[in-house]
Amino acid sequence: MIFEEVKSFYKSYTGKKCVIGYSFRGREIFAFHIGEDCGRQFISAYAIHGREWITAKLALTHIDIGIKKGGGWIIPLMNPDGAEISCNSCPMWKANARGVDLNCNFDADWGAGRLNTKNRGSENCIGDFPFSETETIALRDFTLKVRPYVTLSFHTKGEEIYWQFDGRGDSRGAEILEQATGYKAKLIYGSAGGYKDWCIKKLHIPAYTIECGSDSLLHPIKKLRHVKKCFKALKIFTEKYGK
User: Fold this and answer.
1) Quick one: pLDDT at residue 69?
2) How far is the C-alpha of 98 from the C-alpha of 53, rounded, in Å?
3) Which residues on adjacent β-strands are paired with residue 211?
4) Which of 106, 110, 87, 111 lies closest to 3 in space, CA to CA?
5) How far is it, in rounded angstroms, from Cα 213 to Cα 216?
6) Angle, to 10 degrees, between the axis of helix 233-241 and the axis of helix 54-65?
7) DSSP single-letter state for residue 221
8) How far is CA 64 from CA 75, 85, 143, 236, in A?
9) How far apart are CA 105 and CA 36, in angstroms?
10) Mean per-residue pLDDT for 120-142?
């Protein structure tokens, strides 16, 4: 299971690390620091959707690659319960163990998304109120503690980059990510309540969502090679954008 893989990596990791919180079923949400401690810091989050657990494996490659300038935190598996459900019983499961889509549970036009629902299930459920879930609380509190200059969220799939919300965003980072991945930056409408959205609207910092892997692939993507275009994305982005 991917959670055990990340947990084993955490135990062996000799750098700065911490547990930022726990899932609904009590699994740790691990964070790894790379680069320098001083100066501006980024946050990069992965596998906020259960069936997108391949991005947790991508995160481990990002930790190993490291960066030369600046520093930041990598959170490989934001939704360990959802990943467990996807791996073991319901491959298409997107939500957490309470049936809430975590990327609809942030306080950024919460509930205003075109497909949003309050019905518990695999996807699009917004929860009872913003930050109703232990996982989103953990990411919110950790982000407020770190105060990053930028955040990145790695998802699957579609080979697209989202960088704007509510008419705001920084296109420069999107251009760098385009160059690093070969993906296309795109404006999307009709969604709300995501981590990127909250960072842009409430924290007033640039934030990006990278949809890894071809749209022709089926969820869940199981082969790391299918997201190989993103192997160096974090390294290239932070070294160019962090200047």
Assistant:
1) 80
2) 17
3) 155, 160
4) 87
5) 8
6) 50
7) P
8) 13, 27, 22, 14
9) 31
10) 97
Is residue 214 packed enough to be buried (19+ CB in 10 Å), middle (13-18) or exposed (0-12)?
Answer: middle
pTM: 0.97
3-class DSSP assignment, residue 1: coil
pLDDT band at 75 (very low <50, low <70, confident <90, very high): very high
Write out pLDDT tens, residues 175-219: 999 999 999 999 999 999 999 999 999 999 999 999 999 999 999
Is residue 243 pLDDT above 70, yes or no?
no
No. of H helices and E strands in the chain?
Answer: 7, 10
Q: Say yes or no to pLDDT of 122 above 90.
A: no
Where b means 16+ CB within 10 Å and e means fewer, 26-64 reads ebbbbbbbbbeeeeebbbbbbbbbbbbbbbbbbbbbbbe
C-alpha pair distances (Å), 198 with each of 163, 213, 230: 12, 24, 24
Please name the residue ranges forming H helices in the chain. Answer: 2-12, 54-65, 80-88, 134-146, 171-181, 195-201, 233-241
Cβ-contact 83, 53 below 8 angstroms: yes
Q: Quickly state the pLDDT bin for 67 (edges 50, 70, 90).
A: confident
Give the up-direction half-sphere exposure of residue 19: CA atoms within 13 A in the CB hemisphere. 12
Residues facing 34 on adjacent strands? 72
Instruction: Decide the pairing of beta strands 207-212 and 164-165.
Output: unpaired
pLDDT reported for residue 68: 80
- Side chain identity at residue 64, one-letter code: D
Tokens of 113: 């998304």
